[in-house]
Amino acid sequence: MTDLSTLTLGSTTDPYNKAAERGWDITDASQLTSSLELEADVVIVGTGAGGGTAAETLSNAGLSVILLEAGPLKTSSQFDMQERSAYRDLYQEGTGRGTKDGGMVILQGRSVGGSTTVNWTTSFRTPPETLKFWAEHMGVSGCSVEEMAPYYEHMEKRLNIHEWPQAPNNNNAMLQRASEKLGYSWATIRRNVRGCLNLGYCGLGCPVDAKQSMLVTTIPGALDNKAKLIHRARVVRILREGDVVKGVEAEALTPDVRGITGQKITVRATRTILAGPQPSCCGPTPPIRMSASESEHSCIRPRWRWASTKSRSTPSTVRRSRSTPITSSGRMFTRVPSGSSWRCRRYR
Q1: How far apart are CA 173 and CA 188, in angstroms?
Q2: Which of 181, 175, 216, 176 minimizes the C-alpha distance to 195?
Q3: Regarding beta strands 25-28 and 228-231, do their DSSP bridges make them parallel or antiparallel, or are they unpaired?
Q4: Going by DSSP bridges, is the β-strand pair 244-253/65-69 parallel, antiparallel, or unpaired?
Q5: DSSP 287
Q6: pLDDT tens digit string along 73-95?
Q7: Are strands 161-163 and 190-192 parallel, antiparallel or unpaired?
Q8: Least buried of 15, 147, 296, 331, by fewest C-beta within 10 Å?
Q9: HEC profile of 7-32
Q10: What's the rounded Cα separation, in Å, for the pair 144 and 276?
C-alpha cells in the first residue's frame, strides 16, 4: 500500500494548472458580473461520459463547441481525499440524491467530468443481451455487437481501459474462491486507469490523475481544440423557434452551487446535446423547460441525446432511461479478510 505522506498530490499531474499556458477558455459562471450571450456550432449540457466524449469528438471535427456544467470545476490539486469536501463538491446533493420512494440512493457526480470523476473505474462493454433488447424493444438501430465494436475499441484506447493487473486482495480473493466453489462465473475487472497507485480513494476524486475520467482526458482534449467550458451554469430552458431547437439558456450559480446569482448565459447553437444525469425518479433538481415562448412550455429531463427538433405534448427523454443497480451485502467471516483498501492511511 502506498504511503500517502510521501506523495505530492495533484500539483505535478493536474492538467488545469497549465490552463492559461495552453490557452484554455474556462469560465466560472459564479463570477460573472453581467449576462453572457454566445454562439457555437454545438452546445453540450453536461460534462460527464456523454458530454465529454461528444465535446472532444465534435471539436476534433472542427466544430465550435461550448460545454455547460452545473457543478464546479474541481481538480486533483483540490482533491484532499476527505469525504466531507468530496461529497459536498463532487456529488449531486452531497450523495443524498435518491429515488422518489426512498428505496435507492443514486450516486451521481456534479462537477466537471460528471460521474466519471468519482466512479470506481470499472469499465466494461454493454452486454450483447442489452444491445439486443435496445434493438428489439426500443427500435434503436446501429447498436449491434459488430457495429459497436469499433467505437468501443476507440474509447478503450482513448481511456487506457485494460484488465487490472494487480493480484486481488484478500477480500476479492475470497469472492473468487467462493465463486469457483459455487460454480459462478467471475472475471477480473477492466479499468480506465493509467499509473494507478491503488490508493483506494476513487470515489473522492483521483488525487494523482491516474483515473482516466473525462476531467483529464476528453475535456482537456476539447479545450485544446478551442472548445469553451462554463461551469457553475445550470441550464433551465431549451430555446426554440417553432419546432427547431436553437440553443439553451442557463442560470449562473453561486460558488457553493446552492443558489443563483441572477446572471444568465444564453447559448445559440446549430445543435444541442443534452448529456445531463437526471433520471425521472430523482429529486429536486429543476427540469429543463423546452419552450417556444414564456407562456408555452413543457418540461424535459435530459439523458444523453440530441435535443428533439419536434415538440411533443409530454416530451421526456427519460421514458427509455435505464439504471444498473448495485447492491451491497455482508456476512460474518471466520477469518478476517485483511488487505482491503480502507486500511490505507488517510492523507491530510
Answers
A1: 11
A2: 216
A3: parallel
A4: unpaired
A5: P
A6: 999 999 999 999 999 999 998 88
A7: antiparallel
A8: 331
A9: CCCCCCCCHHHHCCCCCCEEEEHHHC
A10: 25
